[in-house]
Design the sequence.
């Protein structure tokens, strides 16, 4: 079939199918986010227009925002569908690099198609081209190499024949999933080639479930049988495997208390008697207390990030770490006893080897006892008498009014600690806390993508700093007709960093607006309500907790009825936080007041378990 490179690429996208966790067949690439420029409008843009009835194209307003929306889409579909994002060359392309970092850190698939300079080099230097004096082959798109799981630059049409199978492999592989970047020189997009029809034959990509090595499983079973006080840590890999229920059944069969990581949050119903709470710095004291006493930790589908491990101080020095992970890269960390394979398949085979074994009953009972203490603590934080609401209280209202199928998300600032530690889940896999890259601005852009993908109502929670960082996709969602609720908590600046700064003995500086340099005696303030309304959103304001409850209820109704984002703006306290009692390592200068606490905690940090 004689096609341009761009036409062939679009036809291939259309031919790719995916099987969801519940067995439905859906498009692998459900849509394209696009901002056109001279580097992609005539090549890829023309090819997409020819198939506009077969693959939706959504117009965004920042390239970073579009790509973050694609990341949010991938998370909401449990990595079973992949958003495609195209930009022109130069600044448009580079705007997507941050979003690629988000996808890479969180192991989420997204296909990035930045335009590139002319492969022929005939008109060089072209508009928006950065010339590299010592390397004529380099373009700004080489910046994607550091944040892509797979990178290629298509300089001849026939190169698609070898690269597209690799694109599909990376985007659908449970061990290697992440961003793929295909840089597309604008002249090559328009070149024609006789492509074989077989390239466009429909293909359905089904979830791979690699079985673990039997010897590794046997060793893991032996370690667990020797345990008296084991805990189970569930990460994002459990979610992407669709193994949440199997993990709970495994815990029930063997009486093992369950904790969750950031990416694994809401895999377990909050009221389950084995649920000890979320683990780590932004987790709960209940999970952290059990982790400190555990003799064996079975970590499933997690890369054990520092917020989960409290910079590797949350576990006992004598702990035995057993990991089950589809990615060997993650499984072998810290000298763990590594079991490489699918979470669901691995747990099924492991439970067979553990027939008749269970943790000590008194240890099993500790989960509900410790979590009850944590619940009482959260109840106290949510209690309200008067004054400016706290983050914990706002989260409590959203939690109370949400339904089991609803979806809640955040990414940066103080809100991750409030959602992770304080949320009480009633639905499975209904939270997205982007704390792998903790990208300010993901909250709004990612919510646009999640709203496209998720059946229940999406609520995103963010601070004023994140809102100001990236808000243009509010208009994109309003224009496209994708409803969600955004709860904007205005605490007058980067309050969580001010907390870190001052908590370690630093002087207040450049975080809260009161501590920032200004040429005005009375600096201007942002009218978030007016701004969100100007972007096409329904807007509600609140100044008390009762106001928040009324405003959020109205926002839920308005978002669905009017098919656009609804924004709730509420002033919140800048110095009230949910504390899980765990340490987090940051560099503390010797002359600051926080250095003695750092020196005390550092020796307890696990180096290598082995």
Sequence:
């Amino acid at each position: 079939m004689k096609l341009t490179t761009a036409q062939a690429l679009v036809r291939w996208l259309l031919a790719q199918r995916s099987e969801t966790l519940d067995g439905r067949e859906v498009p692998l690439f459900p849509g394209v986010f696009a901002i056109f420029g001279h580097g992609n409008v005539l090549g890829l843009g023309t090819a997409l227009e020819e198939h506009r009835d077969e693959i939706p194209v959504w117009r965004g307003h920042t390239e970073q925002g579009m790509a973050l929306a694609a990341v949010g889409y991938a998370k909401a579909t449990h990595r079973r569908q992949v958003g495609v994002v195209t930009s022109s060359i130069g600044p448009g392309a580079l705007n997507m690099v941050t979003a690629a970092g988000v996808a890479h850190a969180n192991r989420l698939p997204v296909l990035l198609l930045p335009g590139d300079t002319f492969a022929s080099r005939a008109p060089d230097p072209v508009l928006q081209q950065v010339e590299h004096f010592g390397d004529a082959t380099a373009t700004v798109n080489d910046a994607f190499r550091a944040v892509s799981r797979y990178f290629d630059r298509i300089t001849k049409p026939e190169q698609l024949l070898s690269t597209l199978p690799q694109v599909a492999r990376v985007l659908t592989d449970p061990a290697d999933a992440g961003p793929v970047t295909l840089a597309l020189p604008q002249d090559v997009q328009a070149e024609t080639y006789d492509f074989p029809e077989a390239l466009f034959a429909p293909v359905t990509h089904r979830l791979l479930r690699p079985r673990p090595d039997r010897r590794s499983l046997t060793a893991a079973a032996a370690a667990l049988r020797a345990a008296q006080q084991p805990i189970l840590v569930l990460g994002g890999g459990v979610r992407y495997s669709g193994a949440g229920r199997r993990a709970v059944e495994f815990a029930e069969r063997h009486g093992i208390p369950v904790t969750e990581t950031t990416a694994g949050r809401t895999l377990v119903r909050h009221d389950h008697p084995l649920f000890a709470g979320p683990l780590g710095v932004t987790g709960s004291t209940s999970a952290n207390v059990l982790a400190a006493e555990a003799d064996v930790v079975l970590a499933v589908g997690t890369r054990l990030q520092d917020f989960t491990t409290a910079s590797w101080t949350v576990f006992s020095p004598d702990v035995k770490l057993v990991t089950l992970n589809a990615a060997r890269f993650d499984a072998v960390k810290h000298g763990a006893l590594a079991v490489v394979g699918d979470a669901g398949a691995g747990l099924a085979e492991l439970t067979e080897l553990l027939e008749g074994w269970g943790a000590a009953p008194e240890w099993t009972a500790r989960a509900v006892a410790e979590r009850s203490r944590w619940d009482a603590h959260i109840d106290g934080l949510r209690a309200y008498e008067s004054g400016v609401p706290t983050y914990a209280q706002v989260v409590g209202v959203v939690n109370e009014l949400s339904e089991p199928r609803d979806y809640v998300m955040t990414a940066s600032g103080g809100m991750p600690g409030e959602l992770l530690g304080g949320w009480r889940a009633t639905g499975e896999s209904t939270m997205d806390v982007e704390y792998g890259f903790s990208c300010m601005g993901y909250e709004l852009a990612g919510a646009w993508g999640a709203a496209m993908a998720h059946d229940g109502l999406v609520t995103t929670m963010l601070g004023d700093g994140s809102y100001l960082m990236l808000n243009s996709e509010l208009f994109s969602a309003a224009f496209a007709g994708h409803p969600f609720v955004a709860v904007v908590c205005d605490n007058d600046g980067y309050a969580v960093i001010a907390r870190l700064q001052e908590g370690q003995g630093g002087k207040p500086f450049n975080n809260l607006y009161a501590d920032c340099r200004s040429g005005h005696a009375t600096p201007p303030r942002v009218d978030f309500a007016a701004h969100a309304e100007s972007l096409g959103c329904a807007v509600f304001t609140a100044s008390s907790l009762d106001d928040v409850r009324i405003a959020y209820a109205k926002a839920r109704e308005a978002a669905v009825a009017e098919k656009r984002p609804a924004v709730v703006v509420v002033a919140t306290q800048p110095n009230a936080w949910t504390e899980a009692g765990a340490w987090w390592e940051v560099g503390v200068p010797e002359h600051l007041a926080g250095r003695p606490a750092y020196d005390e905690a550092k020796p307890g940090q696990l180096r290598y378990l082995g």
Observations:
- The longest strand covers residues 110-116.
- The CA atoms of residues 51 and 172 lie 24 Å apart.
- DSSP finds 24 helices and 23 strands in the chain.
